Each structure stands twice: as C-alpha cells, then as structure tokens.
Amino acid sequence: MGWKILSKKFLNNEQSVFEMVVEAPDMAKKAHGGNFVILRLTEQGERFPLTVADYDVEKGTITIVVMKIGKSTTELSLMEPGEEILDFVGPLGKSAHIEKYEHPVVLVGGGVGIAPIFPQAKELKAIGNHVIVILGARTKDLLFWEDKFRQIVDEVIVTTDDGSYGKKGFVTDRLKELMENKPLSHVIAIGPIIMMKFVAKLTNGQGDLPKIPTTVSLNPIMVDGTGMCGGCRFLTLDGQAKFACVDGPDVDGHNVNFDNLIARNSRFQREEHERLEKFEHECKLLAMADKAEGECKE
Predict the structure, then answer these.
(1) Exposed, middle or buried: residue 279 (CB in 10 Å: 0-12, 13-18, 19+)?
(2) Which of the listed residues 20, 146, 172, 194 has the most CB atoms within 10 Å of its CB?
(3) Residue 250 scores a pLDDT above 80
(4) Can you tell me the distance from the alpha carbon of 61 to that of 274, in angstroms, rounded to the nearest whole number?
(5) What is the residue-averaged pLDDT of the chain?
(6) Is 238 exposed, middle or buried (CB count within 10 Å of its CB: 0-12, 13-18, 19+)?
C-alpha cells in the first residue's frame, strides 16, 4: 500500500514547479516546520528528500512543492491524484526551533525554497512574532504562494532578478534594506545554496551592518535520512563533519562551509542529466507507440 496523492497543481506556466497534497494523517500529527520527507516512487527508483511545505492535522495531509530537475522529480510530476507514491517517509530531521523574539524575524525564500519557509512562518506568527517574508525568484513565473503568505504574516516583500514583478534585484538587496532600517532578531533563509551563502555572509556583520543569528536549510544528496549513509555530510567552518538529515536540515548559517557543500552537491550532475535524457527518450518512444497503435485501431 502506498501513499495517496490527493491533489496536484502546477504553480507556473512552464509547469516546472508543482504542488502535491499527500494523504498522511499520522505524519501530519507530528510534522513541524523544518522537517522533511523521503520519497521513492517505484521499487527500482531512487530515494530523494523534500522539505515539508505545509501540514494539516485536521485533514491529515502533507504538502510538498517540487521543481522538475531530474528523472525522479519529472516522474513525480507525471503522477495524478488518486495514484500512490510507493514510499513516503517522515517527518525526518530536526524541527525548526520556534521561539518568541523581541524584534521582527525575517524569512527569506528563494525559488522553490519559498515553500518550506511557509510552515515556519506560520508557527512563528502563531506564538506572537512580527514576521516579515522576502520571496525571491528569477522571474515572475517562478513566484508562487504570495497570497498564501499575506494571509498569515505581517509583511511580504517580493523581488525578481529580472524585475518582471515586485522589486528588481536579489533577496539580499531587500534583506540589506531591512537591516539598515530596523532591528531584527533572526533570519531564516531557504533556497539555492548560493543564495543561502550570500544571505549568511550579509548577516554575519559586515561594515556598519549588525550580526544577526541566521538559520539555513540544507538539502544535499540523501539516501536513508537517518545518518547511516553519510551522503548528506557537510563541513562546518570550525572543522566538524555533520549530517544534514540528523543535525539539520536547519543549521547555523554562519557555521556552514558553503564552498565545500556546493562542490559535494555537484558530484552527480552528469549522471543525473544522462538518466533524465534516457527517461525522456523512453517517454517519447512510448508516446509514439501509443499513437501508432491508436491509428491502427482506427
């Protein structure tokens, strides 16, 4: 028995980013912001992690938001409501440390990282924090959930690299403006590694800017999600080796060796690209065969 997909919705015109709601009542009862799940679609499929984008205890559901990048995420995008995911394991990892802060807390979401900041924003606001959210993407088409955030937080700032929506520039530009104009208690950043690297660099006390505690969420290659395989190992700046699956995925952004993490995450790009090309080629052949069979029947 698998895990039933209750709904699927593409979040952009290119249909490269999609949202899925999965029936998982026991998981929903224990999920919190910062947790992740590990999926496997078939017996021969790979295991891959996705951060929990939302959870609903009453409905018994877990929401994930996915960008089609490789073979597995492309296969997942082809699944429809009513179909079942073979393995859907979680919640894994440490929950986000949620506390009441004196000054505003800022959550920065870049690209698909917009989704996993949502449950943390919801939990921070629920205990009385002043919550500011910065949503960033390359273009307007890759932005999503703006209205959803506006319903729960105090302020939403939108920025795009190309200026097609909101303010033109990067999330770090908007964060720097906030840091220059008001005291902030904490910054949480989730998105591409390079984005988190520069957010952490900005909040680490540069020039006249204050140093602000900063949390980032790591999403490296994982296999088991329990610290056994070592695939998600990352280095800290003080020389320790840690595992994102059990020591994170939310960790101190000022103590991550981002350069090493970027290098580790790029190890299997060629193999993943080759697998995706093979999968897409097989899909085209099947589509051609189905079309030919239909024409013969006619």
Answers:
(1) middle
(2) 20
(3) yes
(4) 34
(5) 87
(6) exposed
CATH 3.40.50.80 residue window(s) in the chain: 105-265
Please enumerate in sequence order all residues whose Cβ is within 8 A of that of 119, keeping only pairs 6 or more positions apart, or say none.
31, 32, 33, 34, 52, 53, 54, 55, 96
Q: Which residue has the tokens 């949620």?
A: 98
Residues of the chain with pLDDT > 90, as a percent, come to 66
Q: What are 38-58's pLDDT values in tens digits?
A: 999 988 888 889 999 999 999
- Return the CATH number of the domain spanning residue range 105-265: 3.40.50.80
The CATH code for residues 3-92 is 2.40.30.10
- Nearest partner of 125 among 90, 151, 162, 147, judged by Cα: 151
How far is Cα 263 from Cα 33, in angstroms, rounded to an integer? 27
- Using CA atoms, how far apart are residues 129 and 295, in angstroms rounded to an integer? 62
For residues 186-216, one letter each, b for 16 or more C-beta atoms within 10 angstroms of the residue's C-beta and e for the rest, the string is: bbbbbbebebbbbbbebbeeeeeeeebebbb
For CATH 2.40.30.10, the residue range(s) in the chain are 3-92
pTM: 0.85
